[in-house]
Amino acid sequence: MSRRLLYLLPLLTLALMAGFFAWSLLIGRDPAAIGSVVVGRPAPPLNIPALQEGQAPLTDALFKSGKPVLVNFFASWCAPCLAEHPLFMRLKEREGAIVIGIAWKNKRDEALAWLKRLGNPFQTAGLDLEGKAGLDWGLSGVPETYAVDGNGIVRLHFRGPLIERDLTDSVIPFLKGNTP
Q: 20 to 30 A Cα–Cα from 149, which one of 3, 82, 122, 177?
């Protein structure tokens, strides 16, 4: 009898694991609901080279202008970045938003070609080739956008591409001074 139980043990283990994974998928947790440790804190230090050669490097002085700033981590190889790009163009043109772009783990020439082809919504853009700045900001992937108030405090974080509802419910009110 004990030999039979020994043969059933792997099958029971597999059934328990399958049940756990099924439960995890079906409970409705939203991975985008994971918060960000930088929200409510000063923006992480920034010191990365400019995307455009010959321009000044990006530093955290960009957050001390007294105006709200959006920081967008993007990449030319990122399909969701392509989807949100028109929204950033509109924010720049219609709202006069200050948007700082950071090309994350992207080759300089590819990121520049992408911006040239689609339009450049960024007041300034930097290059985070090794992903170190992304680590400081708590980046989990691209695209991700952070809203930094005029005092340099991160107020909002958007994991994944911005959508129209994000603009109307959060981003535009933030830019107009209605911080959460």
A: 82
Which two three-digit tokens encode residue 170?
């959060």
Residue holding tokens 């029971």? Answer: 12
3-state class (DSSP) for residue 161: coil
Q: Report the alpha-carbon distance of residue 84 to residue 156 in Å, rounded.
A: 17
Residues 31-175, CATH architecture? 3-Layer(aba) Sandwich (3.40)
**Cα 127 to Cα 112: distance, rounded to the nearest angstrom:** 10
Looking up tokens 């409705």 gives 28
Q: Find the helix or strand (DSSP H, E) in which 72 lies.
A: strand 69-74
Report helix angle 79-95 to 108-118, nearest 10: 50
Structural domain boundaries in the chain? 31-175
pTM for the whole structure: 0.81
Q: Identify the DSSP state of 83.
A: H
Are 74 and 143 in contact, with CB atoms under 8 Å apart? yes
Distance CA 6, CA 79 (A): 49
